[in-house]
Structures are given as C-alpha cells and as structure tokens.
Amino acid sequence: MANAAVVERTREHRQNRKKNRGRKVEENQARAIAKFIRVPPRKARLVIDSVRGKYAMDALALLRYIPNRAAGYISKVLTSAVANAANNHGLDANRLKLVEARVDEGPRMKRVHPRAQGRAYRILKRMSHITVTVEEVDPKPRKPRKVVGTRAEAARAARRPAAIPVAAPSVNIVEPEESAALELEGAVEALPIVEAVTADDIQTETVTAEAETAPEAIETSDSIVPDHTVISKDSDAPTETEAGAE
User: Fold this and answer.
1) Which end of the chain is more exposed for a tag (fewer CB within 10 A), N or C?
2) Which domains are seen in the chain, by residue range?
3) Which residue numbers in the chain have pLDDT < 50?
4) Which residues of 220-245 are buried (b: 16+ CB within 10 A; e: fewer)?
C-alpha cells in the first residue's frame, strides 16, 4: 500500500513539473537543440560565430558553402528551428533571425594511443551540444539600387580620355508647300536656256534661206539680155505684142 502511494506521488510530481515548466523562449521565438554531436566544440564554434545574428535564410545559404564538417550539423539544427517556428508557433520563416547560437561541450570519449617502452598517450574524442534560437523580426531591408556603377567602373571612366564633341548635322524641316515650290524651281532650272528672238532676226533668217535656194551666179544689169526689144514708136518694126499676135 505504501509503495502504491509513493508511485502515485512520483507520477503526479512528474506531471506537475511538465505542466509548470512551460516554454523556455519568448512567444515569437523557437529553439532546436542537437546533443552529442561528434565534433569538437572549438571547431564548431568557428563556424557558428560566422552566422550568429544573421537572418535564417541567409545563414543557411552561407552554411551550404562552408567546407567544414560542423557546418552540416549546424545547418540541420537551424533547419529544425525554422521548422519548429513555422509549424508549431505559426511564425513567418522569411522573417526569422538567428538571435542565439551556442556550442557547449559534451562528454569526452577517452582512448589510448600506444607509445614506446609500454607507455600510452591519452586521446580525447570530444562531443558538442548545439543550441539554436530563432526569433521573428521585421522583414529584411532591401538595399537601394546604386545610380552610379561600381567603384572600378568609376575609376575606368575617370581614366578614359574625354571624347571630342561632334556637331550634329543640321536638318531643315521643309513644309509640303515649300517642298513643291522647290521641286518646281529645280525643274525650271533644268530646262535649256533659249535666247530671245526679235523681228529683225526672223527677217535675216528668211533672206538667208532664199539666198541659198537662188541660182549661184547672179549676173549684173549690164550682162542681162532682155527678152523683148524696145523699138521706138517711129520705127516700122512690129512691137512685141504684134509679133505675138502674128
């Protein structure tokens, strides 16, 4: 009977301890612990110091490329903490920040390395306890975009010789009416030039044409023999008219 009362008291005490323990972190926090990790604490602290205080997603991206065996264990613990915050406490995974990250030393496994003359050197295989706590904070601020290029580009631009300004060709905008007038003026200029002809020039050309068609030899008045003979009235010879009548 006494043993039953002791067992019942022990069970009740255990339940009260769980009930009164509650959460060890704040309402906007979540925690994950990994124990007995076969990594020396000194080597694990080198990695965890590089991600402490960063956003959870940035820390996971950084741990992915750290060539250290402890980085894999720390990444798994951090992933578990993010999953606890999102699934158990309803926190936003993209707004979680790594506020606590520590490595405690665990138990040591003692081994022996044989040496000369029957001696033995002690080998200590250390273990670690990794604790990670994430907290929901304000979203990560975005960096403003730089208007100017990088510092190297600015230096190259300063060393580059200044370009000589080249005047742009002038362009005259011609209205449709002005364009038609210019086209007409160009057509008129393209016509052959004709000299003005007067009445005297026309008469000279006519005389020249008649002279070309006339007989080449023009006899003077002394050499011309008339077709008819002029006979005085007193003469008895017949006149031209009478001779023709006969």
Assistant:
1) N
2) 26-136 (3.90.470.10)
3) 217-225, 229-235, 240-246
4) eeeeeeeeeeeeeeeeeeeeeeeeee
